[in-house]
UniProtKB/TrEMBL annotation:
SUPFAM superfamilies cross-referenced by the UniProt entry: Tryptophan synthase beta subunit-like PLP-dependent enzymes
Domain Tryptophan synthase beta chain-like PALP: 20-306
InterPro entries: Ser/Thr_deHydtase_PyrdxlP-BS, TrpB-like_PALP, TrpB-like_PALP_sf
Pfam families given in the database record: PALP
Keywords per UniProt: Lyase, Magnesium, Pyridoxal phosphate
Organism encoding this protein: Sunxiuqinia dokdonensis
Name the record gives this protein: Tryptophan synthase beta chain-like PALP domain-containing protein
Family membership: Belongs to the serine/threonine dehydratase family.
One of the record's GO molecular function terms: ATP binding
Gene3D superfamilies on file: 3.40.50.1100
Named cofactor requirement(s): Mg(2+); pyridoxal 5'-phosphate; Ca(2+); Mn(2+)
């Protein structure tokens, strides 16, 4: 089956659909971080998005794109993180049920978030097999439509609206950076970047301990993630098939960074910019701090993916 790949027009349509529901998040700069790195860095603050992450964009587009017949039965997904909360809120705003399968060892803060947005949680064993099996049972029983966290056309289009806003609000860039986990944010960002910022580089950053996107990109074929270990808990998933096809075509490079650099970058953003970001959001700045990307004298757009962090367990 040939999967249709999203194009920039699809992202424009998504933006029109969701703009009344999502925040147009601010773009912040830091003089001191610019001086330390030698570049002019512009941070698109998706940590200020509803549910505290860019994921609300894709979830909103997926829910708002549903046909009338599907609305009655609701939506379902498996997720232990930001997508679960995002889908629960997007569904609640449309007045439909959201069924969320979560591993029973998911962080308590994430369970609370999903519950607070009205998500109907079913717990399962913390394995992908258990998650998928449980989700299949719920979809069969309820008729709810599965909304995959990243390997989904409408989700990718929604995620691409963050980079569209960044370029519209701050002009063109020499480099656009974002983190990569499953690839929803990267694939959407790359489509917008290629359309609106064609002369700039599109680079993604990934933790060394969860480097399947990096290995897949360089092998030119999907290499699954096996037992990933990183402090960036939002970037543990393997890249999706649809996402990878877009990433191969529209991304210039993927680099990897150490957890030590991620913690340093996260702390720098907290201290210098006075904003809360989660480890995953700090990964692009970590790539700059580890000299994986040369930003000297360059304009650099960075997507800060989210700010959902357990304040009881800070890494610094």
């Amino acid at each position: 089956m040939i999967l249709k790949l999203p194009e920039f027009q699809d992202i424009q349509e998504a933006h029109e659909l969701i703009k009344g529901q999502v925040h147009r998040t601010p773009v912040l700069t830091s003089q001191s971080i610019n001086e330390m790195t030698g570049g002019k860095l512009f941070f698109k603050c998706e940590n200020f998005q509803k549910v505290g992450a860019f994921k609300f964009r894709g979830a909103s587009n997926a829910v708002l794109s549903l046909g009338k017949n599907q609305l009655l039965k609701g939506v379902c997904t498996h997720s232990s993180g930001n997508h679960a909360a995002a889908l629960a809120l997007a569904a609640r705003m449309r007045g439909i049920p959201a069924y969320v399968v979560m591993p029973d060892n998911a962080p308590a803060i994430k369970k609370k978030a999903v519950e607070s947005y009205g998500g109907r949680i079913t717990y399962c064993q913390p394995t992908l097999e258990s998650r998928e099996k449980t989700l299949l049972e719920i979809a069969d029983k309820t008729g709810a439509k599965e909304i995959h966290p990243y390997n989904n056309f409408q989700v990718i289009c929604g995620q691409g609206t963050a980079a569209k806003e960044l370029i519209e609000d701050s002009g063109n860039f020499d480099i656009i950076l974002c983190p990569v986990g499953g690839g929803g944010l990267l694939s959407g960002t790359a489509i917008s970047a290629r359309a609106l910022n064609p002369n700039g580089l599109m680079i993604a950053a990934e933790p060394e301990g969860a480097d399947d996107a990096y290995r897949s990109f360089h092998a030119k074929m999907l290499v699954p993630s096996i037992n990933p270990k990183t402090i960036a808990d939002g970037l543990l998933t393997s890249v999706g098939e649809l996402n990878f096809r877009i990433i191969q075509r529209k991304t210039d490079e993927i680099v990897t960074v150490s957890d030590r650099a991620i913690i340093r970058a996260m702390r720098m953003i907290w201290e210098r910019m006075k904003i809360i970001v989660e480890p995953s959001a700090a990964v692009p700045l970590a790539a700059i701090l580890e000299n994986k990307i040369d930003v000297n004298g360059k304009r650099v757009g960075i997507i800060l993916s989210g700010g959902n962090v357990d304040l009881e367990n800070l890494p610094f």
